[in-house]
Amino acid sequence: MRFLLIDNSNTRTKFTIGTRDGLDNWLAQVPTKEISPTELDKTLIDQQFDAVMLCSVVPEKAAIIAQYFSELPFHQLDYKTDMGIHIDYPKPEQIGADRLANAAGVHALYGSPAIVIDLGTAVTFDAIGANATYLGGVIAPGLASMTDNLSKRTALLPKIELAEPANAIGKSTTEAMLVGAVFGYRGLIKEIIKKITREMTEKPIIVATGGDATLIAEGLPEIDHVSPTLTLEGVRRAATLQF
Ligand SMILES: Nc1ncnc2c1ncn2[C@@H]1O[C@H](COP(=O)(O)OP(=O)(O)O)[C@@H](O)[C@H]1O
Ligand SMILES: CC(C)(COP(=O)(O)O)[C@@H](O)C(=O)NCCC(=O)O
Ligand SMILES: [K+]
Where are the domains of the chain? Predict the structure, then answer.
């Protein structure tokens, strides 16, 4: 059976095909604000699949996607979906579906205990205890959310493209902003990993994913692995249990 797996997050929507054995090489991305039936037609034109598993944190787009696949076996992942993990959280319905998929993905690929850090529109940290128990985590602004907002709320700061800063002492407005973003987020991540690890009983494996993971994980020895398709791996795990 071939599953269409969809990660509908706030900046980009990622698509791949999964089977019981793993993920396909085909991977497509569409800016989330462009998701429409026409865009889905274009993206999926050459793909064959028997069922669809959607992970969404954008309800308006989830409704469009669900409607588009109304003729196929379709499931939208939530806290009640079997993903091979347990949830120990007071209001599990609050947890973003992508955070649950990340927890399922990290457990399926690397085991537990683990911390997964997703550097997307938001930067999220999720802690998975021994025995695959989702414990909770942290939400911070994503790098582009932070730099774009800084540019929007000031008269003189430009929009910047994220890149590795040459030095900590910036020699231009852009360099100074890059240091704030890249070195600043590395510091934030180190501190939060340290504090979360102290609240866990065993040393967790630490895995990063999301659009800014490669840039930020470079130079952060705390991060054991960067796994760009981790969320989709979690969605695949849910699909294998659902269909
Ligand atoms: N082509 C791209 N389009 C959008 N964001 C990108 C791109 N390449 C890198 N990024 C970075 O990735 C981040 C978004 O990551 P992503 O994982 O797609 O977010 P989300 O999962 O929330 O949709 C942005 O903060 C941006 O800095
Ligand atoms: C925290 C998030 C905005 C992250 O979204 P993303 O950056 O992946 O687009 C998303 O998981 C969400 O809307 N969560 C709901 C609130 C919660 O998880 O507690
Ligand atoms: K995401």
Answer: 2-141+186-242
Name the residue with the closest Cα to ligand 2, atom 14: 96
Question: Cα(242)–Cα(237) distance, rounded to whole angstroms?
Answer: 9
CA distance 53 to 198: 35
User: Is there a contact between 17 and 50 (Cβ–Cβ < 8 Å)?
Assistant: no
Predicted structure pTM score = 0.98
The residue-averaged pLDDT of 52-74 equals 98
Find out whether the beta carbon of 29 lies less than 6 Å from any atom of ligand 1.
no
Identity of the amino acid at 242: Q
Say yes or no: CB of residue 120 within 6 Å of ligand 2: yes
Q: Which CATH number fits domain 2-141+186-242: 3.40.30.10, 3.40.190.10, 3.30.420.40, 3.20.20.80?
A: 3.30.420.40
Q: Which atom of ligand 2 is nearest to the CA of 120?
A: 7
- DSSP label of 19: -
Q: 79: closest CA among 89, 71, 69, 70?
A: 89
The per-residue pLDDT of the chain, averaged, comes to: 98
Enclosing H/E stretch for 192:
helix 184-198
Q: Which ligand is nearest to the CA of 97?
A: 2
96 lines ligand 1 (CB under 6 A): no
**Is 82 a residue of the active site?**
no
How confident is the model at residue 56, as a pLDDT?
Answer: 99
- Looking at 98, 126, 148, 224, which residue is catalytic? 98
Query: Quick check: 219 pLDDT over 90?
Result: no
pLDDT mean over 39-49? 98
Q: What are the respective helix, strand and coil percentages of the chain, to the nearest 5?
A: 35, 25, 35
